[in-house]
Structures are given as C-alpha cells and as structure tokens.
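Predicting holo structure, magnesium ion bound.
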Amino acid sequence: MLRDPRPDTSRTTERPLSGLRFDNRYVRELPADAESGLRRRQVSGALFSRIEPTPVRAPRLLAHSPEVATLLGLTPDDIASPDFASVFGGNQLIEGMQPYAANYGGHQFGHWAGQLGDGRAISLGEVVNAAGERWELQLKGAGPTPYSRTADGRAVLRSSIREFLCSEAMHHLGVPTTRALSLVGTGEDVVRDMFYDGRARPEPGAVVCRVAPSFLRFGHFELPASRGDLAVLNRLIDFTIRRDFADIAAQGEVADEGLRARWFAEVCERTARMIAHWMRVGFVHGVMNTDNMSILGLTIDYGPYGWIDNFDADWTPNTTDAEGRRYRYGHQPQIAHWNLTRLANALLPVFSSEAPLVEGLERYAAAYDAAEREHVAAKLGLLACGDRDLDLEYELYGLMQESETDMTVFFRSLSDVNPAAPGLAPLAHAFYDPALRDRQAPRFEAWLARYGARVREDGSDPVVRRRGMNAANPRYVLRNYLAQQAIEQAEAGDTGEIERLLGIMRRPYDDQPGNERYAGLRPDWARQKAGCSMLSCSS
Ligand code: AMP
Ligand code: MG
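Done. Tokens:
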C-alpha cells in the first residue's frame, strides 16, 4: 500500500488499489491513433487516442458509491486511502491502467456532426472482477484530449453531482444505466457561462468515475461508416459482439451476417427496454444525440436531464432544446427509433441487404410495445395490459397533463385507491393547484370508476397487487430541485446532502419513515428556478 501522498511524478506507483485487475481489450484489440499528445485533430483509421488525465491541484473525495466499489473489488481501506482520490481525480495511474480517449461521431439534434469523441472523458481501463465481470472505468472531466475541440476537458461540480447521483438512482430504480464509483473535487475552478448570457464565472470543478461494461455508443459505428472506412467498421462490429455480446458471439462466427443481424436486433430490443423504463419513472434524458446512445442500451451521459414533476409529455429540461423540444418526454420512444435508424444506416455498408436491419428496427417497435404494456400493467396494478388498458393509461396521461398532476406522487398513491369504491381522496395531494384539481375532479372520478371496474374484473389478490404496484411506481425519484439543493450545499462546502440523497435513492420503492419530505411535490420556489426546472448544456 502506498503511503506517500505527494503529487506523483512517476505516474505508476507501487500498487495501490491492488484489488483492481485490468484486462484492456479495447486498446489491445482495436486500432490506435498513431499520433500522441494533445493536439486537437481529426483522427482517422483509429478508434481511440492514448492520452493521460491532466493532474488537478487538490483532489478530494466528495462521495462514492459503496455498491460500485464492492462490484469492482475495492475495500473500505482502498476508499479511505489518499490514493483513491488521487487515482480517481486523475493524478495517478496504477498498474494495469492504459488510459485513452475514444473516437466517435454522432448526430446532434437531428444533424450529422462529424467527429466528436471523448473530449473530456478518459477511460482508464477494463477491470475484471472476481465474478469475471468486465467493468470499464472512465473519468469524466479529467482534462483535454485530442477530441476536446475548443473546450477545456473539465466538468463543473454541479453537473458532476447530478451525474453521480442520477446514475446510481437510476440503477436502484431498475433502469439500465452506467454506474458511478466516485465524485472527486479537483480544488480547481472551471469557467462556465451557465446561462449563455456572456457572464461566464468560475465554478468548482470535479471528476466523476463512471463505470460500465462498455462505453461504446451508436456514434462509434457512425464515424467510420461516414468516412467509408469499412475496415475499421468491421473490426469494431466484431469486437463489440465478441466483448460485449458474448451470448450472441457464442452462437457462431462473429463476421457472419446472420449473427450480426441478431446483434443489431438485440441492440434495438435493449434500447426499447431502456426507453420504456425512462417513461415508467418519468425520466427525460434531454440530449438524445446518437453519441449519447449506448450500444448496450444503458442510460449514458447525464447532462441536462430532468424528472417529470407535474405530468407534461411536452416537457424538456434542456434550455438548448426549448424551441424545438426534440427531446421532450413524450417524444423519447420515437427519437430512440430515429437514432437506431441512424445506426442501421451506419451498418448498412457491411450488410448485403437492408432487410435484416429493417427487421431489427421492427423488433424495436415490438419490444417497446411489450415493455410498455408490462409497465402499464404494473403501474395500474392489472394482471396484463390489453389494448383498452393502454387507452385507459393514455386517457389518464391526458387528464394529468391538463391538471398539473405530480406523476410520481399520483402513481404511487394509486395503490391506495380502493377498487371497490374508487375516489379521488387518496390522490388529492398529488396536485399542484387545488382549484384546478377540484374543477377536474369529476373527470378523474369518472376515470377512477372505470379503473376500479377494470381492477375488479381481474379479481387479483389486493396484497399482491399493491406490492406489485409499489414495485413499479417509485416513492422517491431524484427530483431536479433535490439535486439542486445538494449542489448548493456542496458548493458551500457541505457534501452531507449528496450522501443523504444517495442513501434515499438506494431504496426508491420503499416507504422510508422520516424521509417523507423527499417524496413530496416540488416546492413552489423551485418551479422556475434554474437547475430545478430547466438546465443548460453548460457543464
Ligand atoms: P455532450 O453533449 O455532453 O454529450 O458532449 C458532446 C461532445 O462535446 C462530446 O464529444 C464531449 O466530449 C464534448 N464536450 C462536452 N463538454 C466538453 C468539455 N468541457 N471539454 C471538452 N469536450 C467537451
Ligand atoms: Mg456525450
């Protein structure tokens, strides 16, 4: 164990965090950029550039996820050691790490944007844990790379807290997502123009260590395809199937077109399941560009995301998207399909016809429909969701939209409605405007009457039904204002609220006596406040 806390000069030390075992297939099996160094450049014929994190002044561990630490085989002693903040702040590499920035492109807001790449993310390597699982470690905000273009490669504390907390909250909600190991304050300021109004100001900087089996994005495949580089595209597809889709790889030869078609269909299905979960819990990603779409169907790149408070299918948290609302809540299923179509187009040159890709896209629609029905049945407490039940759900959404109804509180409280005598009373606290609620009450009562009758048709066991509903309708979600409160306290030097939220979001489906205040409606002061209602991309 290393004891010397001096900023390292050697870069590689005598084995701190020795429980981490690396096996870096990405850099071993894929083509590397021949040039080294930071010069911003177009990188062709390669899927990554070797680059080290830029050390920071005073790395300090602000928060960590004990579950992710355990997953990786890290001990409480590892976390308490000064090496931990140093390594995950980007100041020190340990044996086995081979850092790199990935090269990928993407469609941003509907338009091809060319090469993007990891402009501020640096992967450290792939850990294989005791269970044989592969987990890639990636620092976000670790300094410039060849892909940083005109930006600084850093991240502010506020957006880092949001990414750290939300990726863990999503995991515990059962939504496929990248994870977060650590949040390290850098002791350095980062200058950002948060409101894009020309008033840039210094803010504290931070580095998050993200963890996922793979950080491959749709844009990884789009970039070589856009350049007609079929050699790189073929290598990447084979690599992805072999490393990240072992079940499919085991079915035959990875270069086989049938196998590749099965892989694409699997990507479509996973994406569908992820989006259906977002819709279930009221999550709006905010920037569903194809460079922010994971090939594993994981929620990735937490930027100006948000949670639905009052139900509004047209809501987007992203100020940059306020005009067109491309990435609004209700549009996410269609956008995912559009993004998959971009991926299909990128793959087309290595298929002999488009039929298998079209089939894959159809699988998206079928998988989304199936997942949505499963969630609707669970949310409403029905044994199964038929067509008329979907209509019932959509009618409810329409009513909620017109009535300033809190999505999370309403659905959670729905299990308190007695199907034998349905009424609005158990749901009365789910509304932001009591006068509006009272005006809309007859329409809700009519809906509830039909709902109660539908539940009675099933004749299901009330205890089992209630348990099922409460496992699909969270009590706690990371409401925008809650994260904002943790941010403001952390910026003032107190990380206690980060810890507290992490703890609460660990059990989102449980009633947690004493934590009721975290389950309530968004307070009025937060309605229009920056960070609580809308967010800019500045991060
Ligand atoms: P995002 O919208 O956050 O997914 O970012 C889009 C692209 O911009 C990616 O290539 C990022 O790596 C890059 N990027 C965003 N912020 C920064 C930054 N501060 N420094 C360098 N690159 C950045
Ligand atoms: Mg991104």
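Residues 160 and 229 are 35 Å apart (CA to CA).
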